[in-house]
Amino acid sequence: MELKQLEYFVAAAEELSFTRAARRSHVVQSAISTQIKALETELGVSLFERSTQKISLTQDGELLLERARGILRSVDETRELLAPDRAEIRGRLAIGVTQGAWRGMIAALTSYRAAHPAVRIELRQAPIMDLFAAVSEGALDVAVVPLRRAKEPGLLVRELHSEVLTAAVGPMHPLAGRESVSLAELAGIDLVGFTSTWALRAMTDRGFERARVAPHLAYEVNDVNTAADIVLSGLAAVVLTTHLADRFENLVHVPLVETIEWRVGVIASERRCTLAAAAFMDVLA
Asked: Does the keyword DNA-binding feature in the UniProt annotation (predicted)?
């Protein structure tokens, strides 16, 4: 059993795709398939259920995944401990982020890379619930997420920033000249909404529920650029975080009467917080 086999196995198990695992590991897909097949042969078990459309972990694969993550984490920690320059942080930093949450992402990643060039950075975008689970299980070292509460069992939580949600419309929309708008008024017009995996969608849905109104989501999209195009055309309005609305100079902000606060923070496992993860949290502080 080789470390490279375990690395490829963990990548395939977390991505549930040999193609994405190969892209993540910077190798061809056949290398992933060959090494995982050799691992299965050595262990005498099947690690994946394979079909023409997808792969999934077998029960043996689930057992190995937890153990493999621990082995690779121990190897990284040992390398850090015995590195010739022990002041230099090494190893892997797996970061998770959900769409629309991380203000200043590129600047933070650039600063971290400059401060810790020996750390291998990997970033994955995923729905918020997947990120909390991945950090708890060890698949990710840290994640930048909208915060659900001040404390999370088993997790280190550090708030990074907060802002309020705002309505945004095109310059010719009837609401463009308004000083504010209520959620009840927004519920009476066509809106752009994000798909259910977005934390922003969950937060706006809760806001409308508290206002006891149901929004009319005429357009459901999965990216901010498409939402902005629809809104700028005058077809609909949208509820966004302030920093997302600021990305589009022609969008007109119309403050909400109701306050919907968007709090973003970084989370890490209390038990598995590596030196690389702790340094990353310090960079964001």
From this structure: yes
**Which domains are delineated in the chain?**
1-82 (1.10.10.10), 161-262 (3.40.190.290)
Give the separation between CA 26 and CA 271, rounded to whole angstroms. 29
Cβ-count burial of 210 within 10 angstroms (0-12 exposed, 13-18 middle, 19+ buried)? exposed
Under 8 Å CB-to-CB from 41, ≥6 apart: which residues?
none
Cα 125 from Cα 131, distance rounded (Å): 8
Return d(Cα 160, Cα 145) in angstroms, integer.
10
**Do the beta carbons of residue 6 and residue 73 sit within 8 Å?**
no
- In this predicted structure, the answer to whether residue 85 has a pLDDT above a threshold of 60 is no
Match 């977390």 to its residue by tokens: 14
Strand partners, 123: 95
Q: What's the whole-model pTM score?
A: 0.70
238-271 burial string, b = 16+ CB within 10 Å, else e?
Answer: bbbbebbbeebeebbebebebebebbbbbbbbee
Query: HSE on the CB side for 259, CA within 13 Å?
Result: 4
pLDDT tens digits, 40-63: 999 999 999 988 778 999 999 999
pLDDT in tens, 5-33: 999 999 999 888 999 899 888 889 999 99
User: Residue 104: which region, alpha, beta or left (left: phi > 0; alpha: psi -120 to 50)?
Assistant: left
Q: Can you spell out the DSSP letters for 173-221? A: STTTT-S-B-HHHHTTSEEEEE-TT-HHHHHHHHHHHHTT---EEEEEE
